[in-house]
Amino acid sequence: MVPVAQLLVPVLTADADGRFTAARARADEALALGVGGFLLSGGDQDAVRGLAKELQQRSRTPLLIGADLERGAGQQFAGATGLPPLAAVAWLGDLEALRRAARLTAREARTMGVNWNLSPVCDLDLGSPSPVLGARAFGPDGATVARLASAWIEACQAEGVLACAKHFPGLGRVTEDPHLGPAEVRAPRDVLHAEDLAPFRAAFAANVASVMTAHVAYPALDPGGLPATLSREMITWLLRQQLRYDGLVVTDALDMRGVLAAAADEGDAAVRALAAGCDMVLAPSDVAATAAALDRALASHALDPVRVQQSVRRRLKWAQWASPPNDWRRPAATDVMWGAQLADRVVHLVRGEAPPAADALDVLVVDDAAHGARDGVLDRLAVRADDRAALFDTLRAGGVAARAVDDAHGGTDALAVALFGGDGWPAPYSEAALGRVRAAVAGAEAHGRPVTVLHFAHPRTAPDVGGVPVVCAWSGDRAMQQAAARWLAARRGGGVGAPA
Fold first, then answer.
1. pTM above 0.90, yes or no
2. What is the pLDDT of residue 52?
3. Which of 69, 227, 278, 469 has the smallest CB count inside 10 Å?
4. How far apart are CA 456 and CA 420, in angstroms?
5. Is residue 252 annotated as a catalytic residue, yes or no?
6. First-to-last CA distance in the chain?
7. Which of 395, 346, 362 has its CA nearest to residue 500?
8. Residue 166 and residue 118 in contact, taking contact as beta carbons nearer than 8 Å
9. Are 65 and 40 contacting, i.e. CB atoms less than 8 angstroms apart?
């Protein structure tokens, strides 16, 4: 019997306390079925380390332990180093900084037993109001993105962690959200080949271990209208035969409606993804039901056992390649300090002039993350909207008396409006959030209070709120909150760090 359950990769989500107590039953079920890996979402780094070690010891086969670490290991795991988004690092124009960021991320991941980073994003950022990219992509030019993605992949995999080029054949032209429903790119075939596929060709040349498919239809590449994940034309013919890629091909999350809209259920989607040429299925909601669907498909010959066995061998090859070495290269204290300095470098003014120094600061948090969640469907990469304490803690550590306020009235100190979200669809921010910002700015100016807007998203979505200073910090992660606070604190001369 072909061990087809090895091609499933369920998600284990940490509890609020950073441990994985609630995920234990799911892990036990998945291990009993014989899955080939897990994706970890959240968790304290010590808990992650213990869980990864236990999973490997209990598994009948070497496991791929993966996570979305586009913004450093601290993106997911408490206690690890958070880094700026890929767009911010690319904005610096410093290729060595990009390589070092990839190395640091991989080294921290390895110390926790995470051997597969679902990065980098190889999609082009074409400047349209994309519902899925935000600051995750390197930039708009295919040749530049190809060069940066290759450097990132090589640095990551040199540390023994698999990289993943995503989302094939490219999400840069998507105007619908595949989390919510069907999405389609109608660009001509020659444009897709010349531009969108360029970063993926470079990733393949860099021997990237895995590539993730998009739950998006591309009629120019497959007139049948299937999303890439389910399309033999795009996976077997284009990716495998024409582009000659022989690494792991993995689906995007199976619970996304962009793929489920084209299938009867998750089991059907998994069967059709493997039949199209994918090797592994990520994030099935019901692992047992999906495994049973794959077993039935093998028994009925809806899946070719020979082709599925190829995927099993391919998965095992890369899991063995990433098996723990005898002596892990651990990040040094200087590496962690460098990560904070990198975050400081990308913080910059996008509107207005630098604000005056302030020893005391009222901070109004306008949190539009729910708008970015698009009707409550949260991407696994989304910033946790309930953790904004890093901004206040770092300001106070830098000598600024920071106080949370609900509006701009009743105070005399300088005001900072911390604006989170910025990746909503179809507009970056909701009108309600922008209304609160404008009211706060008007109220502060009426009382002669200096006001600064801290924009925790891509600079292109920075709001124009009457000429006041707008400081871009790229994302709402803890690392970027800290960097923005250091930027403000450094202006008073007694804080840590320095303005970018």
1. yes
2. 97
3. 469
4. 5
5. yes
6. 59
7. 346
8. yes
9. yes
Give residue 16's identity as a one-letter amino acid code. Answer: A
- What confidence tens digit (pLDDT) does each residue in 54-68 have? 999 999 999 999 999
Q: Which amino acid is at 368?
A: D
Separation of alpha carbons 40 and 56, rounded Å:
14
Confidence check: pLDDT of 31 > 80 = yes
User: Which tokens sit at 374?
Assistant: 């698009």
Q: What does the block give as tokens for 469?
A: 């200073």
Select from 425, 412, 405 the least CA-distant residue to 364. Answer: 405
Torsion angle of the four alpha carbons 188, 191, 193, 198, in this order, in degrees rounded to the nearest 10? -150
Alpha helices in 300-404 (DSSP H): 305-321, 333-346, 369-372, 389-397
Question: Does pLDDT of 327 surpass 70?
Answer: no
Candidates 44, 123, 252, 423; catalytic one: 252
Which H or E element spans position 166? strand 164-168
Contact 76, 67 (CB under 8 A): yes
> Cα-flanking dihedrals φ and ψ of residue 140, to 5°?
-90, -20
> In this structure, how many other beta carbons lie within 10 angstroms of the beta carbon of residue 359?
12
Please tell me the predicted confidence (pLDDT) of residue 373: 52
Closest C-alpha among 391, 407, 419 to residue 488: 391
Per the listing, tokens 């332990």 go with 65
Query: Who contacts 299 (Cβ-Cβ below 8 Å, separation ≥6)?
Result: none
- pLDDT tens per residue, range 234-252: 999 999 999 999 999 999 9
Q: Which residue has the tokens 């408490």?
A: 78
Q: What are phi and psi of 213, to 5 degrees?
A: -85, 155
Q: How many Å apart are CA 42 and CA 387, to the nearest integer?
A: 13
Q: How many H-runs (helices) and E-runs (strands) does the chain carry? A: 17, 15
Q: What is the 3-state secondary structure (H, E, C) of 103-147?
A: HHHHHHHHHCCCCEECCCECCCCCCCCCCCCCCCCCCCCHHHHHH
> Do residues 89 and 132 touch, judged by C-beta distance below 8 A?
no
Tens of pLDDT, residue by residue over 332-363, are 788 889 999 999 999 999 999 888 888 999 99
Rounded Cα–Cα distance for residues 83 and 479 (Å):
6
Please determine, for residue 489, whether its predicted confidence score (pLDDT) is greater than 60. yes
Q: Supply 275's token pair.
A: 């039949």
Q: Give the span between the Cα atoms of 53 and 49, in whole angstroms.
A: 6
Q: Considering only 130-139, 369-378, 424-433, which range has the smallest mean pLDDT?
A: 369-378
The closest alpha carbon to 138, from 83, 87, 201, belongs to 87
Q: Which of 316, 153, 322 is nearest to 248 (CA)?
A: 316
CA dihedral 397, 403, 407, 413 (to 10 degrees): -90
